[in-house]
Amino acid sequence: MPVRNAAQWLNETFESLMKQIIENINIELSIYNDGSSASGSSLRDETLNIIEQWRKQLELKYKLIVHGYENEEARGVGYGKNRAVQYSSGRFLCFQDADDLMYPNRIHRQYHVAINEKDDAILIGSKYERIPEGSTDRYTQWANNLTEEQLYTQIYLAHGPTLIMPTWFCSRSWFDRLGGFDEIAKGHCEDLTFFFKHLRNGGRLYRVNEVLLYYRYHSEATTFSVHEDVIWSVRIQEIQLNIINNLEKLTIWNAGKQGRKFYRSLNDINKHKVICFCDMDPKKISKGFYTDELSQDKRRIPVIHFTQAIPPIIICVKLGLTNNDFETNLSSMNLREGIDYWLFS
Predict the structure, then answer these.
(1) Which residue ranges does the record assign to the Glycosyltransferase 2-like domain (predicted)?
(2) Domains, the chain, ranges and CATH?
(3) Model pTM greater than 0.85?
């Protein structure tokens, strides 16, 4: 558990840790302090004091390990997570954000999945509940209702990993083999890059279909420090590497802003694989084509009605925003996700 200026959340977090059901398992709690402001500083934070106040109680249940430094600029979430792992010694790793709360059976359930699956290269997540209630409803509905197949096919969406990082549980040997998280400072999506690295190396995904975590939504969450352009760049790189580089041609579904941005983000070789844009908007279709002004020959790419689209298709349309019109249109085409089309929105 990495922490930085987390005082307002820690009491609740530690309470949830003390309620964990632990049966014949030796568990360490490895906390790494990523520069929290100590007493006496101009930006005083009580993180370290709260950890000390809980020390004796936590040590009744866990082997407590606390490392880190004070009153310095944050070195990044990836750095903090890696150091917390480095100072621990467990066979398995259960990641816990300082502002989230575990259900009492979280460790118990995920540990037994790991033991029963007998596969070190497995990343185990779970369903979750947002607090405050009603926060990010569309995101929560998406993550909690993905099918087992969609855990792999919908990895390019802007939502991020199909298993949300605060629920991750994995083997230490696999984590070490992958080299841990990227240690780029603030503003990097270290969870997404690790997730893609996991899949590229043949890792499996497993979601416990129970709510095992209260996932807190608040304005100070590190998620908000990651610029969407950074996430976009990582996603573009990955979908080209895994999908588009292996195609001879493709259609982009969305002749509007997002579809054109997707096209412009492709490398030159993959741009020439785009045979057309498709859409359901008569105004966009009536224009007839999109002109690539940056290409040497000012290449014109046709814009057609979606019913005329030829797979494979990269879909750059956001889900759940068209009164189900888009979803109905897509379903009517009898296409196979992960074979005929991939979602990127």
Answers:
(1) 1-178
(2) 2-226 (3.90.550.10), 229-343 (3.40.50)
(3) yes
